[in-house]
Amino acid sequence: MIAPDTLAVFLALGAFAGVIAGLLGVGGGLIIVPVLVWALPAQGVGPDSLTHLAIGTSLATIVPTSISSVRAHHRHGAVRWPVFAQLAPGIVIGALAGAALADTLASDTLKRVFGVFELLVAAQLAFGRPPAPHRRLPGAPGLGAAGAVIGAVSALLGIGGGTLTVPFLAWCNVPLRQAVATAAAVGLPIAVAGAAGFIAAGWGKPGLPPGATGYVYWPALAGIAAASVLAAPLGAKLAHTLPTTILRRVFAIFLATLGVRMLSG
Fold it and tell me: pLDDT tens, 29-51?
C-alpha cells in the first residue's frame, strides 16, 4: 500500500519533470532518478537495488511522455524520420547493453556515475553553448554507431536521449527544431529497450517492493507518467514567455545540487 504522501511525491515529481522537459528540453530522468532514490526507501526498497529501480522506473516513464511529444512534433513535420530509422537499430542495441552494464554495477557505484553525469549536464546548461555546426550527418554505419553510444549511456543513467542526441544532431548541421523533434522520437526506443532490459535484469531479484516487475516500479511509473504528460504542455507554453537563459542557469544549480547529493550519498 502506497502512503498518500509518497503518492503525492510521485505526482509532484511527474508534474515538475514534465514542465522542465517542455520548458528547457531537458529529459525528466535527470530529476526523476535522484528523487526516486530519495523516495523509494519509504516503500521498503533496500540499498542494493535502490538505484537500479530508480533508473528502470525512470526509463519506463519516458515511454508515454515520448509518444505524446513525438505526436506533437510529427504534426509540425519536424521529425527527421530517415535519420531516426538509421539511429534506431544502434539505439536499441546500445540501450539493452546499457541496462546489462548497469546490472553489473553496485547500486552505490551507479549512483555516483549518475551524480557525475548530472554535474556535467549542469555545467553545460549554466556555462556551455550549443555545439557549433561542423559537418554533415554521417552515413548509416556512423549513425548506427552514434545511436549505440547514445542508447547505452541513456539506458545506463535512466535518461531520455535528448541530452545527447540534440547536441550530436546540431553538431551535424541539423536545424535545432528538427534535432529536438528527432531526439524526442529517439527517446521512445531508448525507453522501451532500456526499460525491458531493466525488467529482465531485475527479474526475481530479492528486496524489490510489491508492485515492481524487475527494476520497474509500477505505482511510481503511473503517478509520474500521468502528471508529466499533463504538465509538459505548460512547460512548452512557458518557454515562449519566460527568460529561458536565466531559467537554464537556475535549473543548472538545481541539477548540481542533486548531483552533489547523489555523490555524497
Answer: 888 999 899 989 988 888 889 99
CA distance 248 to 19: 13
- Number of structural domains in the chain: 1
- Claim: this prediction has a pTM higher than 0.85: yes
| Residue 247 burial (10 A CB sphere; 0-12, 13-18, 19+) | middle
The candidate with the shortest Cα–Cα distance to 65, out of 209, 211, 183, is 183
Q: 113: how many CB neighbours lie within 10 A of its CB?
A: 18
Tell me the sheet residues that pair with 217.
212
CA 2 to chain centre: 24
pLDDT of residue 27: 66
**Domain hosting residue 57, numbered range:** 4-264
Cell 528486496 belongs to residue: 207
Question: Which is nearest to 9 in space by CA: 47, 38, 44?
Answer: 38
Most confident among 27-36, 125-134, 195-204, 235-244 (mean pLDDT): 195-204
pLDDT tens for 45-84 read 888 899 999 999 999 998 887 887 788 778 878 889 999 9
Cell of 5: 504522501
